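Handout, section B. The chain below has 254 residues.
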Amino acid sequence: MPGKLVLVRHGQSIWNLENLFTGWIDVDLSPQGCEEARAAGRELERAGVVPDVVFTSVLKRAIRTQWLMLEQIDMLWLSVERSWRLNERHYGALQGLNKTQTAERHGEAQVKIWRRSYDVPPPPLPHEDPRHPRFDRRYAQVPAADLPSTESLKDTLVRVMPFWEDRIAPALTQERNVLVVAHGNSLRALVKQLDGLSEQAIVELNIPTGVPLLYEFDPGLSKRSSRYLGDPEAVRAAAQAVGWQAQPSASGAQ
């Protein structure tokens, strides 16, 4: 049988607390986010799921979540591969802006479209803007044409799927348990494919922070089952909290 797959959205970040659009901006975890990461490690231990390989994005909120999880299960020695393809969706010119103020300026309906529609990206970041990823040395080896100025969820899926096909799926077929620590939208892109969700269904899906989502597969890598690890009521409350964050007037932007 293939290995098991565990998806974990990073813990709460500092900019979640400040109600700012984050995207590819490299902000750290809040104290609550650090505890969420440790709790995710404890849930892995409780479920008896031992990772063989770990993948993260190149953003520190995912990297630190992965580090705290592995520290919790005493596996800091485990090999970790980081990839820009697992980064959060790029929020374009919205990055760094206050979500409530942006809704007041552009209207809540427009901000909801930018945040939650499947194929409508936010306004792009100007090519010469110093925040553009082409000026960040961590992306120096990425072809310039692949670096986004903005992304929809559909764009994010297109960017994530080659990593699934080239790195994650082969590890699973080698009977290795895989831990992926990434972001709300890069993980939603994976879940859409793994669960066969429609465009409308994935728009409504909320992935809670710091809660491991366990997948098991048949030999052809079709999903046999999936479930969140932890207390069902706590998981439901965490997912609901993420749903509230999706409202333009709420706090806690991605």
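Note. The CA atoms of residues 28 and 61 lie 5 Å apart. Compare this with the example in section A.
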